[in-house]
Amino acid sequence: MIDNSRNRSNFTLKWHHMGTHWDFYIVRVVVNPQDGNKVRQRDVARTTPWSGEFTVNTRDVMDFGSTTSGHSTQQSEITFWLKGCDNGTFGSDCGPWSDPVTYTWR
Description:
Layout: E1 2-6, E2 10-15, E3 24-31, E4 40-48, E5 51-57, H1 58-61, E6 76-88, E7 91-94, E8 101-105
Antiparallel strand pairs: 1-2, 2-5, 3-4, 3-6, 4-5, 6-7, 6-8
């Protein structure tokens, strides 16, 4: 299950009941991809073995509601993908990427 919350400068994604015990998660995020913004990837510590949380400071990625050229857009969009991973002696063993989760608002 995935939940979200948003305020003026932050967007928080929370997930839980992932079905498998993971040591950490990898999150990919892109804000307003229609404006040419790139996907960014971060390792995220787990909250519990079955849950995690990731907050995007949207001003670090780009300003919501404007394109890279500063012109207003009709709506803002943020897309996340995540996967769980276990630490191993010779590297990490990860599950598959989730389906993309996209939130859109005006």
